[in-house]
Specification:
Blueprint (H helix, E strand, L loop, with lengths): L13 E2 L1 E6 L5 E6 L2 E4 L3 E5 L5 H9 L1 E6 L5 H9 L8 H4 L4 E3 L6 E3 L4 E11 L4 E11 L12 H4 L2 E4 L4 E4 L17
Antiparallel strand pairs: 1-11, 2-3, 2-6, 4-5, 5-10, 6-9, 7-8, 9-10, 11-12
């Protein structure tokens, strides 16, 4: 038997994306955003309100980065989601993050988070909060790569947001199937 819960923003997994920007004076800022995903093959979408400091920065600079939150930095990732850059100008530093200038967009990479999408603003609709960014580059720290340059999920240790229980969960590296192969057994 199933139980109905009505319309809610629940889906699994919801990645924990840390959006980083520079403000008009070049100061780095970051925010936690779980309502995001891939839009087409070279774009990301983010659902974010117009009153965020990060939104203001993106509109100003036309660029942002999207880093994967990880187990090692869960406290810092949560912190940047509960404190506004409008209220705390040193939020990035207080989180323990170090800004590295992207080579591809006018936005900072977060040195401590090993996987980052570097994006240019495509569009932002204030009425819906839907932001679209074009992925210009993906940078991944060598420390989480395999010898053949694939991501080692165990080393990356990404976290996801559980909206129902309001917790963060670790994604582990146990392989339970082979994509685009296992289903062929049913043909």
């Amino acid at each position: 038997m199933r139980k109905n819960f009505g319309s809610k923003p629940w889906s699994y997994p919801q990645p924990v994306f840390i959006i980083a920007t520079y403000d008009k004076d070049g100061n780095p800022n970051a925010m936690n955003a779980a309502w995001c995903g891939i839009n087409d093959t070279d774009e990301v979408y983010i659902c974010m309100g117009s009153r965020h400091k990060t939104t203001e920065n993106i509109e100003e600079r036309k660029a942002f980065t999207v880093s994967m939150g990880d187990v090692k930095h869960v406290v810092a990732c949560d912190y940047v989601g509960i404190v506004s850059g409008s209220d705390e100008p040193d939020k990035f530093k207080k989180a323990g993050f170090t800004a590295i200038k992207s080579e591809f967009v006018d936005a900072p990479l977060i040195e401590e988070l090993p996987m980052t999408l570097e994006c240019e603003l495509v569009s932002y609709d204030k009425s819906t909060g839907r932001l679209i960014g074009k992925i210009k580059n993906i940078s991944i720290d060598d420390s989480v790569l395999t010898p053949d340059d694939k991501v080692d999920v165990g080393k990356l240790a990404p976290i996801v947001f559980d909206a129902i229980n309001k917790t963060y969960l670790k994604i582990d590296d146990r392989v339970v199937g082979q994509a685009f192969r296992d289903g062929a057994r049913l043909q």
